[in-house]
Please model this.
Amino acid sequence: MSENRRKVALITGAGRGIGKATALVLASKGFDIAVHDIDGTTAAETASLIRQSGVDAESFAADVSNRDAMGAVVSAVEARFGAIDALVNNAGIASDRCPLEQVTEAMFQRSIGVHVAGTLWTTQAAIIGMKQRNAGSIVNLSSIQALVGWSEGATYNAAKGALIALSKGWAKEFAPWNIRVNVVAPGHTETEMTVRNDSAELRAAKAKTIPLGRYARPEEMGEAIAFLASDAASFVTGQVLSPNGGFVIT
Ligand SMILES: NC(=O)c1ccc[n+]([C@@H]2O[C@H](COP(=O)([O-])OP(=O)(O)OC[C@H]3O[C@@H](n4cnc5c(N)ncnc54)[C@H](O)[C@@H]3O)[C@@H](O)[C@H]2O)c1
Model:
């Protein structure tokens, strides 16, 4: 692979929402894009949108919690683009909201499977090539729920908290290979995840609790993720960046 090839980003869960917005932002900042999602149709739509802007992109469909499937996706992306320079572990599912007594094994396994195992297996596959090239950047998606806790959100809190701990450990583990690992912990963001979960009235009420007075647009998360994924953040590793409109100020 030539040294002056374009950089390549693999973004999981990029068929819609924050992942899609991140794909578009990274495409505008010089990355070719591997668009992954469990939904092959939306992934293909994101890839097509990027190609229309003159940037190379291709879609890959798989369940992120399936280790073999994600290993195959990583291999296919490397075969198609030559390398993965930036990995964004974004695929996620909405928080289960219920008192602890009502949490089921299925809920817990699904949340840990998609968020934690999904991130772990995808990173495990992608890290091999990154180590060979002594370069790489990984951004994992946590949430403000991991920073301040959320009542009746045990399965999501557990998963998103684990992602911060995993990322801090990996930042130290992979630093000798010049591979950076950071976290974006979004605040309230206007995507299908939040629109489906909460009525317009509830979202308006929640927006009043955010100092900036509104939900984020997905592309505002995309900008933060793209910063950490890119060389602009070349000395940043093991950090949590939380664009949250001032909802969490520590
Ligand atoms: N929207 C928010 O307010 C908010 C806040 C904090 C954190 N987050 C996190 O940001 C990330 C993106 O969230 P979003 O709001 O864009 O959600 P979204 O529901 O709009 O999009 C999530 C995407 O992930 C994909 N996905 C879901 N399960 C998958 C699986 N098993 N395998 C592969 N892909 C799968 C979906 O198909 C979808 O395209 C998630 O990790 C979420 O937990 C979102």
